[in-house]
Amino acid sequence: MSPLRSGLAAFLCLAGGASALFPDCVNGPLKGELVCDTSASPRDRAASLISLFTVPEKLNNTGNTSPGVPRLGVPPYEWWNEALHGVAAGHGVNFSDAGDFSHATSFPQPILMGAAFDDELIHAVATVVSTEARAFNNANRSGLDYWTPNINPYKDPRWGRGQETPGEDPYHLSQYVRALIAGLQGDKDDKYKRVVATCKHFVGYDLETWNGNYRYQFDAQISPQDLAEYYMPPFQSCARDSNVGAFMCSYNAVNGVPTCADPYLLQTILREHWGWTDEEQWVTSDCDSIQNIYLPHEWSPTREQAVADALNAGTDLNCGTYYPKYLPGAYAQGLINDTTLDRALIRQYSSLIRLGYFDPPEAQPYRQLNFNNVSTPEAEALAYRAAAEGIVLLKNDGALPLALNASTSLALIGDWANATTQLQGNYAGQAPYLHSPLHAAQARNLTVHYAAGPGGQGDPTTNSWDAAWAAADAADVIVYVGGLDISVEAEGLDRNSIAWSPPQLDMISALAAQGKPTVVLAMGAGQLDSAPLVANPNVSAILWGGVPGQAGGDALIDVLLGDKAPAGRLPVTQYPASYIAEIAMTEMALRPANGSGEDGASASPGRTYMWYTGRPTFPFGAGLHYTTFNASFPSNSTTTTTTSTLSISALLAACPPSTPHKDLCPLPASLLPTNALITNTGKTHASDYVALLFVSGTHGPAPRPQRRLVAYTRLRDIAAGETRTAALEVSLGSLARVDERGRRVLFPGAYRLGLDVDGPPAIEFALEGEAAVLDEWPEPDESVRVGKGVVGVGEGYFVGGYGSGGGEGQEVL
Amino acid sequence: MSPLRSGLAAFLCLAGGASALFPDCVNGPLKGELVCDTSASPRDRAASLISLFTVPEKLNNTGNTSPGVPRLGVPPYEWWNEALHGVAAGHGVNFSDAGDFSHATSFPQPILMGAAFDDELIHAVATVVSTEARAFNNANRSGLDYWTPNINPYKDPRWGRGQETPGEDPYHLSQYVRALIAGLQGDKDDKYKRVVATCKHFVGYDLETWNGNYRYQFDAQISPQDLAEYYMPPFQSCARDSNVGAFMCSYNAVNGVPTCADPYLLQTILREHWGWTDEEQWVTSDCDSIQNIYLPHEWSPTREQAVADALNAGTDLNCGTYYPKYLPGAYAQGLINDTTLDRALIRQYSSLIRLGYFDPPEAQPYRQLNFNNVSTPEAEALAYRAAAEGIVLLKNDGALPLALNASTSLALIGDWANATTQLQGNYAGQAPYLHSPLHAAQARNLTVHYAAGPGGQGDPTTNSWDAAWAAADAADVIVYVGGLDISVEAEGLDRNSIAWSPPQLDMISALAAQGKPTVVLAMGAGQLDSAPLVANPNVSAILWGGVPGQAGGDALIDVLLGDKAPAGRLPVTQYPASYIAEIAMTEMALRPANGSGEDGASASPGRTYMWYTGRPTFPFGAGLHYTTFNASFPSNSTTTTTTSTLSISALLAACPPSTPHKDLCPLPASLLPTNALITNTGKTHASDYVALLFVSGTHGPAPRPQRRLVAYTRLRDIAAGETRTAALEVSLGSLARVDERGRRVLFPGAYRLGLDVDGPPAIEFALEGEAAVLDEWPEPDESVRVGKGVVGVGEGYFVGGYGSGGGEGQEVL
After folding, report:
1. Which region is the signal sequence (chains A, B) (predicted)?
2. Which domains, and CATH codes, for chain A?
């Protein structure tokens, strides 16, 4: 043990002894109480504990900075901890200045990990994060619950927090988050949770500040169809399918009701429809979103009514001070009752009990973790792998991988060339190191000529040119590393442009005009319209590197050199720069609109690869390789199968009885095999390959999306000449469409399953028989929507039915 | 002499000796050259110097960081120096870390100085700035030219750089800038200029980043009428009436042409129409706006053509590196010639000659200035006065001035309560001190309870409440000091909201509900819609304090206590928060539009107090006092004169022959006296009084503005009971209207001169006879407007005429 580590051990002893980190069930006031009885149920233990609290003590423990109850030996607890892509600094997390606990592994931002399309990777990353979080907690440097993941689909390219999400596709997000929560929380049946994850922001939150609209007051108008089809699936995956420990309601309102005060969202959908009813499952507000119910939403006429509306709706915890400040008044006025107050506290303390908070540490494996378990070599390798797997190759005229030798040199030019904190993006912790591309290139003994870039998005370049010319003149190959960073895309800050900034574009084209191989590494979370770079024959290659974390430079340089082959796919659409002028950020509808319809909708080119009617610069799923691949479905020798017909009733009958929800029933391989054979047909490079499977066809109500992702998997390290099988399991829920009422319905009609951005190869088939509702969708109870901002979700949405012989889906057969 | 000062003297000797600060005409290579002959004309001296340069040496000296010509002993010179409200740090200005030259006087931002409506104050401030600038220059710590003032009218409340301007009214700006330039440059006939001022940004620049529009690429569509009536007058004041030494062309295009490449703006209007033809008058580009001609404007097809287009149009200097980088290519391609290149350099060096650059220092008074002349007690007093004069009282239920005594205490709450750098805004230097309200209150021995505010514009307040409650609970009087700062309004950053942020509004209303006197100090440059505070009976008073500079806290506390009476007036309209949703920031038209007109214009509620058709929360010119005033015109005993009729021809005949331009002819007091008598009718407080005179009436073409400012003056320290005369001279140009062709025309019709936001009192009169053109307006030469973005300023603008019996103006008689 190093001196540092032994120092830690001494600290841990102190923390486990005198500090107030955990309740003392052995010698403290709670000794002998039911809450300390590990044989009792978490609910009974928590209910017993809360019964010991006085009403003021209850009211006092409703904010994120919970003071506990000193009288009872219940220690203070900070509920606000962050771990978006590694244990993150701030709030409940306290890094040391040096030595032990001065760092934690800093993975790429989720948007780049989303581009890997690798659920196994996500599970591994989340497992490291929860391990390191436990080590921090054991040292009294963090809490046990974390307000991650952010799974609002990244539907508008301007959104400043798109970087926090895995992308724009709801199926992708649903799978991603299931892997992530399993890594953060552990198995559902484990006695102790690793940590508690928090799915946020529930729901319809994807706007920071746009044209006078603020997240704190925005009222998202969302149809039941868009809600159930697009905005809700990732949250359903969290609540119904992953048993996540916590939810966070959002700043915005949905259809007139602030989400944190909406029992339709928090009770009817979340708890009742999705069965999220374990005692230890709690809802926190976003930070100060309870205040926002009063102002600016002006939903509740008084502050006391606002806190009561939130607590009664099912918001159990307030990030902020409104609950502790105004719940006493609400209680005195009879706006809340003891049952509701106790419910909130029992949920919170049940959650802590499931985390072992009141249990003997020696019986808990996670309580044994320490700084030896942080930033391990395996964790560092995983951070590198996560960065490398996400990088997307968008253009290559053959310049990549670079053929450098001892006598050739590289110019690294641009604001990201020597990036350090830029590599992390927001909600970052202290990384053990931040390897810039420059650092990585030098570490590989390349001869590098470095120059900073022209600065931020559109600011004057002024004197930045001379160094760039000098570097370019001296080098044989030019690599420009620039794009976006959190000065232009961040929490609170949506982008005003999705074009490359003119100074950057000018510098790139001027450098490229020198006639040397010129590679652009497009960095940052949001896509910049690279059409001018694609069209410029002097630009040899384009890679998108996202926000790649502590090992980002290593991964980028290795990809440039061919030591690692790129295989990521764009997790979002890369729109033309003109797109944002065609659609308001406040527009929540996914479907295109011509603006002349009777519904009064504004003209819209549609949103996401599913509905966008224009021509993207690069589509969702785009990504090139250093080698060539052949893909096929083994069931047929041609690129397209002969059409087969399947019966909806037979598909349902084939569903294993153990499947808890009909939409999760698989499309049986015995009836329609969907696995694909992938062959690396190149001669040189081993490479990963991401198999994406999309469905399209005339089934379900018009308008119909162009295609929808229904399965994906990543095959790793396919050697030149090697063939592998991509397991692509399709659920009936993925084949289903969502109707105007929000119901997920398996429709008869024509289907086409296309591989890799719509094939070839493809499988065509038809479903016949009656449309089947796989998942009902609860209607809002209008009686509770009484605030000023109510926008009726009226009868207009509830049209049609799917009885025998009826239903829109059958019209298309 | 203090040790510090003697240290300075030693440094100055060094600077005057070995350094390259000034050319050495005594012993250097230029000795004996004409440029060193002080008896020759500046033009001949400069032309002689440039004739010594080789072509590469000329091309090399076209950027802001001019290397000079070492061979000739011409030292390097940095043209980019800033002094918006005091000598500002950065670029050519170099503050020391401590001791001498570690600070300079930091005045309020222009928007607050504009609120003083005190041209004498502005002249005094500018004189201090130029004095301190010279002292810095003598110590080789700054240049001799400064890129100030910013006089684009502040027409949209969202504009992030509105803080840099004196306000929204073109007459006000014209008067303000005349006083400012006289203070910066000295008298026109002085042998040596104090410093050179630079009027910017020419023209039509008042947008940073809005909804996908960037200043670097925005093409402002402006009619000749709006251009001549609204956007141009401050620049005319600079060029024609103040002989300013330099202009800066802007980032944006106007009617399709990037301003820095537009000979219509830079030659036809600026130099020919306004007679701005002295050799030493030069135009600089904004920083990198030459690059922007190529990209993103895409006006010129190559970079070489872009620099040639700019130089040929009359942009003499490039802030940036495009000129030195690409002019050699343009020269080689024959896109520029020697005459044009020499013209640019002769202008620059003539300017330096007028600053004494090549002359013996002993004969120049400004060369004797040193740090003893910086931050003098007089300068410090002036910074205080500038802050105090601008503060505007908007609401007062009698709580102000505060009646505090030894047993009462004050809560100072909010993000500005302990403001330091916030007091300065952008383009700031290092101040000798930054006195926050908290500092000032403590210095006055008040008992103060301080708490920070809820943070920026709309961010979560979270844990900021407890300290605010504690402070408010402990105090007898609550003062909230908040609003805006450069986190939400800044260069590059237009506002997304003109409402008070919900957390601030929530905190103010919660504090005010305690029933104690509660005063709101609204800080920041832009107006926040204070309607909720006006309507809230618990809010006792509202003061607007702008961005008040180094003595801001002193001035604010003195106004609160009544040691200084507020008398500032809003230099902009305070719009309702909904205004920004009604008009695009890109809309350049001032006049309202109903959106159904044949011209296809979008609906608009109009801009500025002149044209806005809605009800402002506070109008331009609003401002209350601690005392009461009576105002009257001495020529009549009632509040409104009897109508008199004047002949236009008689008015013109009465114009003194020495008046250089007809629009400057005064309305003769012998025909219509407009001076007002102002009486302080209160019993307690002495107070300043700003007399504003507006014209309205049915004269000139419809639509007609509601009123227009035609004269103002500030009377200082009017004692209780005292009467003073406000000298209000009205020019014929102020009475004139601008027609659709851009001509300034004195129309027959009905006129009303109203005092103090439209009277009473008022003077009504009529003008009769033929409409008279006081100022022609040059038409653009369409042959030069050949770029891609050309928007024709076609015949539609040139309608009607003003011959005998004709003209729209006469229709209203």
Report:
1. 1-20
2. 34-373 (3.20.20.300), 387-561 (3.40.50.1700), 627-775 (2.60.40.10)
